[in-house]
Amino acid sequence: MDETLLRVENLSLKRDGHAILSRVNLAVRPGEVHGLLGLNGSGKSSLAYVLMGCAGYAPDEGRIWFADQDITALPISERARLGLTLAWQEPARFEGLPVGAYLALGAKDSDRHHLAAALEAVALPPSAYLKRPVNHALSGGERKRIELAAVFAMRPKLAILDEPDSGVDTLTLGDIAAVIRRMADQGTAVLMITHRDEMVTVADSASLMCQGSVVFQGDPAEVRQYYGRRCRPHAELLGAQPWEAARSPSFEVQMQRESER
Ligand SMILES: Nc1ncnc2c1ncn2[C@@H]1O[C@H](COP(=O)(O)OP(=O)(O)OP(=O)(O)O)[C@@H](O)[C@H]1O
Ligand SMILES: [Mg+2]
Predict the structure, then answer these.
(1) Same domain, 160 and 173
(2) Residues 6 or more apart from 68 whose CB is under 8 A from it?
């Protein structure tokens, strides 16, 4: 048996004529946490949608192998049946359903004790949340935690977590890291997507994406160091308005320095 659970080979994706992913290669072993780090717009979510088989995200080239099976052409439902799941960057709300019932939808074991344990794993007291409706009254961070609890209760073979840290206070990043480690301990491999390099420290291995390509792979500490040297300066210069920053002289100077390194 192949030692990888997920293997991505030369995956490319175009959308509306734009190249979004270019010849991406990636491997995740069973039960490991693999960090996928990259700046905004580098293609991380698009890769997640291709891996999950979302509509409109069939790759233009390349192959996806999951548990020794070529899943490139399989529909989303088949991939889910094989044990692949995706926690969205912006979780769906399932308006009105009690949190407990929402967790039970995909849970491997839906008895109350297991659902409560899943909420405890994301530091939400079950007594306060199990019966609470999933609706607009939940904060973004609470919804995000409930989404993580749902994946925890599901116990898939591979969980793709798209920015599990977004919308959650910096102070609670440790909680998020702890639940990801617990997922791995109970046998779920995790592809953890993030643009915050401190999150990568929770991973066993990591990849760095830049403009639709994986540009660096290996030990999380090395990937983090590379990101800090090569990517973070660009992010700081670009800020929220890349088109303006890209025209500014300071940006040109910085890019020149980068290319000389
Ligand atoms: N249909 C499309 N047509 C053109 N460009 C697209 C389309 N869909 C996505 N893109 C572009 O592809 C790039 C990758 O987007 P994606 O959402 O995968 O990035 P990301 O790494 O997840 O970013 P973030 O950290 O902000 O979530 C972006 O520049 C985005 O604008
Ligand atoms: Mg994204």
Answers:
(1) yes
(2) 1, 2
